[in-house]
Amino acid sequence: MRAPVNDLPVLFERVSLRAGGMTILDRIDAIIEPGAPTLVVGPNGAGKSSFLRLCMGLSAPSEGRITWGGRPDAKPTRRAFVFQRPVMLRRTAAGNVAYSLKQAGVPREQRAERIARLLAQVGLSELAARPARRLSGGEQQRLALARALARDPDLLLLDEPTASLDPAATRSVEEIVRAAASSGIKVVMASHDLGQVRRLAGTVMFLVRGTLREHEAADAFLNTPSTPEAAAFVRGDLVV
Question: Model-level pTM greater than 0.85?
Answer without folding.
Answer: yes
